[in-house]
Amino acid sequence: MATAPRPRGALIVFEGGDRCGKTTQCSKMVERLKSQGVDAVMWRFPDRSTSIGAAINAYLSNQSQLDDAVIHMLFVANRLEKRDEMLRLLAGGTTLVLDRYSYSGVAYTAAKGVPHLSIDYCKSLEVVLPAADLVVHMSMSAEATAARGGYGEERYEKVEFQARVMEAFGQLRDERWAAIDAAGTIDAIHEQVAAVVEPVVRRTLQGAVLGRLWD
Ligand code: FDM
């Protein structure tokens, strides 16, 4: 008797401004899924471990200057270089939990207000990437994140800029988005996150089709 193909994993993306607690919530969610027997891994974008990621890291930590279009392309390339591995993992049944993805790419660049780097243009560069099954948007005001420890160390951690990023995120919102108020305790936020993530993971394991970004 032929064995049924292994169901694919879910692509769960966490998005939000700097210092909103995404990384903490991503890792807690992965641990929870694993404890339920779900094969899950966490990735971060930018992936600073590659040579493209090292160039991005130098830019973010103000050790280099780059044209806005160039740094945008590097962020895109940093995702494209991981595309094959993402598709392989998802097809093999692993759920990927991403700390930022293309939505950050589009929102942060669009927030710069450079006319030739519009939201539509930025989106068009990444249509070959898989769509998220769920975007967990950790929402918090730019002022509230600015009050958090370590704020201001990296290039984009400025209140006025972060407020424009929030606005740009608002324009990317679609039916796959779930907004979570990021201002509560870690455990309370985790319960809200789990309540939106778990049904999507279950649905995906039951055969939901993997889409393409922005379709
Ligand atoms: N960022 C992140 C972008 O500008 N474009 C992107 O495509 C991505 C993935 O880089 F300020 C910005 C968002 C943030 C910084 O910070 C990365 P973290 O702390 O590694 O998430």
UniProtKB/TrEMBL annotation:
One of its GO terms (molecular function) is ATP binding. Keywords: ATP-binding, Kinase, Nucleotide biosynthesis, Nucleotide-binding, Transferase. Its EC number is 2.7.4.9. It is an enzyme of class 2 (transferase). Pathway: Pyrimidine metabolism; dTTP biosynthesis. GO terms for biological process: dTDP biosynthetic process; dTTP biosynthetic process; dUDP biosynthetic process. Residues 14-193 form the Thymidylate kinase-like domain. The keyword Iron-sulfur does not apply. GO terms for cellular component: cytoplasm; mitochondrion; nucleus. The keyword ATP-binding applies. It comes from the Eukaryota. Belongs to the thymidylate kinase family. This is Thymidylate kinase. It comes from Chlamydomonas reinhardtii. The chain holds residues 1 to 215 of 266 of the full protein.
